[in-house]
Amino acid sequence: MSGSYYVPASSKWPALGSLAVGVLMAGTGMLLVHGSGSPVMVIGLAGVLAVMALWFRDVVRESRQGLYDAQMDRSFRWGMGWFIFSEVMFFAAFFGALFYVRNFAVPWLGGEGEKGVAALLWPEFTAHWPLLNPPGDVAGPREVLSPWQLPLVNTLILVSSSITLTVAHEALKEGYRATCRNWLAGTVLLGLCFIVIQGVEYYEAYAHYGITLEAGIYGATFFILTGFHGLHVIIGTVILATMLARIHRQHFSPDHHFGFEASAWYWHFVDVVWIGLFLFVYVF
Questions:
Q1: Helix-strand-coil percent breakdown of the chain, rounded to 5?
Q2: Which residue, 30, 138, 207, 274, could crosslink 134 as a Cys pair with Cβ 3.0–4.6 Å?
Q3: How far is CA 97 from CA 101, 105, 163, in A?
Q4: Which listed CATH number (1.20.120.80, 3.40.50.300, 1.50.10.10, 1.10.10.10) goes with 68-283?
Q5: What is the Cα–Cα distance from 91 to 194, expressed in whole angstroms?
Q6: Do residues 236 and 157 make contact, with C-beta atoms less than 8 angstroms apart?
Q7: Spatial contact of 232 and 277, defined as CB atoms under 8 Å apart
Q8: Which tens digit of pLDDT belongs to each residue from 208-238?
Q9: Residue ranges of the Heme-copper oxidase subunit III family profile domain (predicted)?
Q10: Half-sphere exposure of 191 (CA within 13 A, CB side)
């Protein structure tokens, strides 16, 4: 294709995006450790959202100008595939921490295994998960959330959202743009419902169950796993809303819609992670 290119044009957005994420993480760390830093966190969040919006704009413009050839399409697919793989490793680390604590550290403190001598540190400690009575001076949660209430509702919502997104994708491939738009709008709505319900669950955890980041290892692992997943749901919902706007503007065709496809890959990955969270954080 004349005028197409394989290596994308130089862009300032990766550097600015990294800077915005760094500011966001610094502000978040200040808030969690020192109780201050909200302005820094808000500035970082605004920067991340701004970079996302402007970067999306440039990519859409390049795509609409026909600058992406078949080799560029393959590059995008490999890039998205490796990005999702990095996300798999990201969550594997947190799930690994949860499994290590549950299957090794807690039993050792209870006197089991070859390192059971650790039980001498807190002789009164009883090894049980969820850990409601951590050793030492740490106050654990009063009780844990039932998996068969809000967590189950959110599971049904995310599973349903994968179905509606798949229907939207198949409709787009068949050229049924209105059908695609309607089902995609339903997916975005389900994503928003999940976010709202997660917020309600966090309020209940803090206000009524004593589950906080300071509530021992259970509180820490609970909020790290569900919190990072919730952040991914928010990002995924923003991306799907962007795809919805592009569908409305007639941007995709049945044969050329990798932006939509990549967002679908991301969303399905987020759904699979939630199923793991539901099983290993809430149920077992």
A1: 75, 0, 25
A2: 138
A3: 6, 10, 31
A4: 1.20.120.80
A5: 19
A6: no
A7: no
A8: 898 988 888 899 999 999 999 999 999 999 9
A9: 1-284
A10: 29
Do residues 241 and 187 make contact, with C-beta atoms less than 8 angstroms apart?
no
As a whole number of angstroms, the distance between CA 203 and CA 104 comes to 31
The hierarchical CATH code for the domain 11-66 is: 1.10.287.70
Tell me how far apart the alpha carbons of residues 274 and 277 are, in angstroms, rounded to a whole number: 5
The tokens of 43 are what? 């500035």
Q: Is the dihedral of CA 217, 218, 222, 223 positive or negative?
A: negative
**Tokens 């009575």, located at residue:** 133
d(CA 86, CA 80): 10
